[in-house]
Amino acid sequence: MVIFFPQKHRMAIIILAFLVIHLVFSRSIAMATNPTVLPSWNEGSSKSSILEFVNRVTAENSPDYVPPAERIAVFDNDGTLWSEKPFYFQGFFLIDRLKAMVKDHPEWRNEQPYRTILEGDREAIAGFTEKDIVRLLAVTHTGMTVEEFQTLSIDWLKNAEHPRFNRPFTEIVFQPQLELLDYLRANGFKIFIVSGGGIEFVRAFSEEVYGIPPEQVIGSSVKTRFEERDGRSTLVKLPELGSYDDREGKPVNINLHIGRRPILAFGNSDNDLAMLQYTADHRRSSLILLLHHDDGSREWAYDRDTRIGRLDTALDEATRRGWTIVSIQRDFQRVYPFDRSD
Amino acid sequence: MVIFFPQKHRMAIIILAFLVIHLVFSRSIAMATNPTVLPSWNEGSSKSSILEFVNRVTAENSPDYVPPAERIAVFDNDGTLWSEKPFYFQGFFLIDRLKAMVKDHPEWRNEQPYRTILEGDREAIAGFTEKDIVRLLAVTHTGMTVEEFQTLSIDWLKNAEHPRFNRPFTEIVFQPQLELLDYLRANGFKIFIVSGGGIEFVRAFSEEVYGIPPEQVIGSSVKTRFEERDGRSTLVKLPELGSYDDREGKPVNINLHIGRRPILAFGNSDNDLAMLQYTADHRRSSLILLLHHDDGSREWAYDRDTRIGRLDTALDEATRRGWTIVSIQRDFQRVYPFDRSD
Question: Has UniProt tagged this entry with the keyword Hydrolase (chains A, B) (predicted)?
Answer without folding.
Answer: yes
